Amino acid sequence: MEQLIGKLDINQYLPTALDWATNILLALIILVIGVWIAGKAYKAVVGIANKHEQLDDTLFRFFGSLARYTILAFVGIAVLNRFGVQTASIIALLGAAGLAIGLALQGTLTNLAAGVMLLIFRPYKVNDFVEVAGKFGKVTEIDMFTTILQTFDNQQIIIPNGKIWGEQIINNSHHAIRGVDMRFGIAYGESIDDARKVIDKVLADHPLILSEPAPFVEVETLNNSSVDFLVRPYCEGQHYFSIRYSIPEQIKKALDDANIEIPFPHRKVIVVNQN
């Protein structure tokens, strides 16, 4: 009698045990396959950036991670579904939580969206000299949320991408050849042709100034007390600041040696004696 009761108990729980074993086995298979597919998806997305140099690695690593975790989320839902868990309520709960987090992190998500746009359109890259958000410096790092600049006095400036995208971006390193605009004035009594010859010689003797395109030296403005030249030599981008901060001194000395007056503001005072 006891043996019969034991067999009945086993037969009673055997289908349930088989169902659980089957569900566990299927859940493991789904989990293993899902993790494998997620890893493959990440590598495939990152591989796109590796095949094309113009694409940004940081952006595609982000997209790869997004694809991987999206697949893993669906895998987790499928695994829970195998054990009879009502996933519809979980999905609704996750949606509500995502909405709440999105509202709380609105500024952060704005920076994230701006970072994605910057990495897609690439208005600047690392080592470019840029002026963004009212700051000027060398780009040392671009990530999904911020852009980091290094100034000439060796300060680090971290700018949220949301303050950059949608505003004016000046990339001083975009073109390989740059013109350096400078202005110099001479007195009205001096010869324009002689002054131009002096300036042309200074530019021609400078080792970093290019002969093609030729430097531009012309009278730009007739001011109250001076005739102003616009001087624009051309150079390779990395030499811009060397030209910008060396030429003015050299032209000043050359004009002095040629006895060409560089005017400065004068004020005439008339004293009236009432007696």
What does this structure look like?
- It is a single chain.
- A hairpin with a 3-residue loop joins β2 and β3 (146-150).
- This protein folds into 3 domains: 2-104, Helix Hairpins (Orthogonal Bundle), CATH 1.10.287; 122-171, SH3 type barrels (Roll); 177-257, 2-Layer Sandwich (Alpha-Beta Plaits).
- Helix content is 51%, strand content 18%.
- The protein is elongated and about 130 Å long.
- The chain is built from 7 helices and 10 strands.
- The protein has helices at 2-51, 57-82, 87-104, 106-121, 192-205, 240-244, 247-257; strands at 129-132, 135-142, 146-150, 156-160, 169-171, 177-179, 182-186, 216-222, 227-232, 234-236.
Distance between the amino and carboxyl termini: 147 Å
How many individual domains? 3
Order of helices and strands: HHHHEEEEEEEHEEEHH
The 3D shape can be described as elongated
Average pLDDT, rounded to a whole number, is: 83
Report the CATH architecture of the largest domain.
Orthogonal Bundle
Number of helices: 7
CATH T-level fold name of the largest domain? Helix Hairpins
The residue fraction in helices comes out at: 40-55%
Ranges where pLDDT stays below 50 over 5 or more residues in a row are none
The CATH class designation of the largest domain is Mainly Alpha
Helix/strand/pairing class, anyone? alpha+beta
Q: What's the β-strand tally?
A: 10
**Major sheet attributes:** 5 strands, antiparallel
Question: What is the beta-strand fraction?
Answer: 15-25%
For the largest beta sheet, what order do the strands appear in spatially?
4-3-2-1-5
Radius of gyration over alpha carbons? Answer: 36 Å
